[in-house]
Amino acid sequence: MEKVKFALPKGHLAEATFEILERAGYVISGRERTYRPTINDARVDLKIIRPQEIPIFVSNGLQDVGITGADWVRETHADLEVLLNLEYSKVQLVMAVPKTWAEINSLSELLEEFSHEGKSLRISTEYLNLSTECLKSDTVYRDLYGDADPVLVTPWFRKGENEKVAIYLSFGATEAKPPENADAIIELVETGTSLEQNNLKAIETVMESTAVLIANKKALRDHAKRESIYDIMTLLKGVVDGRKKLHIFVNVSKGKLQELLSLLPALKGPTIAPLSNKDWYSVNTVIEKERFLELIPTLRRLAQGLVVYEPRQVLSLDNARPGEQES
């Protein structure tokens, strides 16, 4: 059987990615020494690749499935299937300018100021497409420049009609570019510390991004590969869902059982078992973690012996079955 080619991201997504895979039950070896670590699933081949490249490789079928940032899926316009929001590495793509520009607090104000001064605006970023979309969706930009594309400047090409706004491709250390090499940047931020340290402030949010599981459309039409890919998705979704749940066990008297059951949420239905004392029952169920504190008064009033576990995974298997379409 042909193995599923699974691309894992290098860089800031790497640690959280290996953590979720290990929590899902995978054992990965050799990632410190090679770009081709091994995994305890004989149907899968791993390769570590920069997250910027993964959507293109998956779209073109060079990889069957991968984990990357939602930002790079949008930036590359790759034709693929997003299977699952993995909900980690939550970041924002923002536009930032020097903090000393107290009068500028939005993209519109930035465009108005540079137009009024008759100056060309220089933006440094890794995200040429998302930056272009952000600019062209701004009302002031459209009023000033119509549908003209900003100039894109890279070592390999220069294109676009609007010389008044130029987007320069950055190869890293983007926060260090202003004010000498750029007037503004468009960059990922998680806590904002890097912007603060470089005397910058965010004035516009371009998008919010998390890690996502993506797949090649042709691979999903291949029966064997589809089964393997959906197995990966099922295990990872179990971790995503498990982080939002708590598994609780309580003892309750026979007289209070029905009242407790009427007030206790459950994944489908709680498990109820009689204890050695015929007037008592054990109840265990899975609840939303965010509801736990709200349920404490009810549990304290009606139950005894509360035990709480954080599940490694919660697998809702009936929602993780691939379709019947064959290759």
Q: What is this entry, summarized?
A:
The protein has 327 residues and is of the alpha/beta class. It is built from eleven helices and 18 strands.
Q: Any overview of this molecule?
A:
The chain has 327 residues and is of the alpha/beta class. It is 30% helix and 31% strand. The chain is built from 11 helices and 18 strands. The chain has a 7-stranded mixed sheet. Helix 4 packs parallel to helix 6. The chain is globular, with a radius of gyration of 26 Å. It starts with a strand and ends in an 18-residue tail after the last strand. The model has no long low-confidence stretch (mean pLDDT 93).
Q: What share of the residues does DSSP label as strand, in percent?
A: 25-35%
Class from secondary-structure proportions: alpha/beta
Number of discrete helical segments: 11
Most strands sheet: 7 strands, mixed
- What strand order characterises the main sheet? 10-9-11-8-12-7-13
pLDDT < 50 runs, ≥5 residues: none
| Percent of residues in helices | 25-40%
For the terminal residues, how far apart are their CA atoms? Answer: 14 Å
What's the total number of strands?
A: 18
Global shape? globular
Q: Please give the radius of gyration in angstroms.
A: 26 Å
Overall pLDDT score: 93
Order of helices and strands: EHEEEHEHEEHEHHEEEEHEEHHEHEEHE
